[in-house]
TrEMBL record:
Residues 13-227 form the ABC transporter domain. Belongs to the ABC transporter superfamily. One of its GO terms (molecular function) is ATP hydrolysis activity. The keyword Cell cycle does not apply. This is ABC transporter ATP-binding protein. InterPro entries: AAA+_ATPase, ABC_transporter-like_ATP-bd, ABC_transporter-like_CS, ABC_transporter_ATP-bind, P-loop_NTPase. The keyword Zinc does not apply. Keywords: ATP-binding, Nucleotide-binding, Transport. Transmembrane segments: none annotated. Pfam families: ABC_tran.
Length: 237
């Protein structure tokens, strides 16, 4: 295979044999995972199964105890809370880490993309929860990451705002084409957004679903709920 072809299929991240322990407790156990550029992957699993531990390892925020993580560039991360700097204007927050030259213009373009183009000189304290998460998304995407890590970024939002954010993030990902790993507790959110849904159990990927194929959402929902231990059989009268 020629070098240019190899470059075309290069993934956003490739993880092999990843292991992470807290003391004696192995939380991630030889986990393998590849996410292609432009692919939207959701990660579900019972509370405490290691989803955030995996995301933090991919983000380079925590050390790992074994295996390899190959990512061509530093990933961008959006957390459940916006983590904006309260003393910086919105455009300064978004442009943090960019070269000074052209930073305001790039921040302006990113804020316009999330519907906040008129708020460059506003402050984080004046934003609603949904608006603050939109700024957090702008701050992540302005870096043009090849891998975007989303750690329950919509969990604290009300139901309608969450649906609006789903539409927005789907559109942004379609335009920027990063590989995405979304950690979520929300089966419906995973089905609405992801090309591929992974279920984490026992420190590794235990199941995989592709909800986008025709007729698949209902079957995927049922399979996911069963895998997550949700009992839907109602007691007989
Ligand atoms: N800094 C830490 N020190 C010790 N144990 C930790 C630490 N961080 C996480 N753990 C443990 O590792 C396990 C996995 O935690 P993690 O936060 O990754 O789970 P999760 O799947 O993201 O959970 P949730 O869905 O509840 O957010 C848990 O049992 C947790 O108690």
């Amino acid at each position: 295979m020629s070098a240019p072809l190899l470059a075309q299929v290069a993934p956003a991240v490739r993880v092999a044999g990843l292991t992470r322990a807290y003391g004696d407790r192995v939380v991630i156990d030889r986990l393998d995972l590849t996410i292609a550029r432009g692919e939207f992957v959701a990660l579900l699993g019972e509370s405490g199964c290691g989803k955030t531990t995996l995301l933090r390892a991919l983000a380079g925020l925590d050390p790992i105890d074994g295996g390899r993580i190959e990512a061509p560039r530093e990933p961008a991360v959006v957390f459940q809370e916006h983590r904006l700097l309260p003393w910086d204007s919105l455009w300064r927050n978004v442009s943090l880490g960019l070269p000074e030259m052209g930073a305001r213009e790039r921040a302006a373009a990113a804020l316009a993309e999330v519907g906040l183009g008129g708020r460059l000189d506003d402050w984080p304290r004046n934003l609603s929860g949904g608006q603050a998460q939109r700024v957090a998304l702008a701050r992540a995407l302005v870096q043009e990451p090849e891998l975007l890590l989303l750690d329950e970024p919509f969990a604290a939002l009300d139901a309608l705002t969450r649906i609006r954010m789903h539409v927005l993030v789907k559109d942004l990902v379609a335009r920027h084409r990063p590989g995405v790993l979304l950690v979520t507790h929300d089966v419906e959110e995973a089905i609405a957004l992801a090309d591929r849904i992974l279920v984490m159990r026992g420190g590794a990927i235990a199941a995989e679903h592709r909800p986008t194929e025709p007729g698949r959402p209902a079957a995927t929902r049922a399979a996911l709920l069963a895998e997550l231990g949700v009992e839907l059989d109602l007691p007989s009268a």
